[in-house]
Design brief:
Length: about 325
Amino acid sequence: MSAQAHRLYHLGSAKLSRSNLSRINEGKPYSLYEVLFSKLLHRCQGLAPSHNFKFKNPLYSLDASSIDLSLPMFPWADFRKTKGAIKLHVGLNHNGYLPEFVTVTEGKDHDVTVGRTLKFPKGSIIAVGKGYNDYSWYNQLTIKEIFFVTRIKSNAKYRVIKRNTVLKDKGITSDQTIEFTGTHTSKKCPTKLRCIGYKDKMSGKHYIFLTNNFKLSAKTIADIYKARWQVELFFKWIKQNLKIKSFIGTSKNAVLTQIWIALCLYLLLAYIKFQSKLNKSMQQILRLLQLNLFEKRDLMVLLRGEPIKDRSLSINQMALL
């Protein structure tokens, strides 16, 4: 902002300091940006491409990521004796990789506690890690006709009811119908489930997946869990590119404001990507916008890399369609 001070007047903006930003983030309610996020998400959902699987069920990946905070500077974010943290929970829709479910909680809150509160459409498939292990929740999802794919705990007690034939050339080592036999587990989840063994050819690691979906092939179930990595990439991307590791302002409102603004920016980039239909990554779009932030340019011309023909640009072209 300081380097481009000579352009601010022509853009209709005044000089802005870090202290000014901090004061704004402290005073303006973060709920404003939370509502804006919901409106942007609705816009993006209408343009988002479908996921890469052949089935038509909505596919979600759930995960949570901790954001470390200095306890002396953020005393409200009490996590451990000498450490502060908050936790960002995301339900990533694989249609366009949009963060459809987002919640920010205290660092101590367990992943599955938030998972239980999410309301997925009937017929959805959700991929979750071991942090979401809850047999009662698995049973509730089954009753609601929502499918899940996860990894079974190593100490789970169950018996095999049926063994299905497997395609070993696909890496599938077993495909079984099981029911839990543990005293408490069998009461929490009395329904029959499917247990699939899979050996990754690249790493040589062996995985055992648990699901309530008996229609999809065993290899597809394994691929669904593998696709859960997309939510990990989402966390990595926003932390590296959207500056939610360091904060301007130390209050809870300031931190949440910055997080929700970052999420809104992610959706704006996704919208531009979907609308432009160009083969550019969100990283490339972000870099182009950063380099031309103080230039009045036609957005599509900029994305296509066309030369500037007319430097006069209507202010209406700066508006979101």
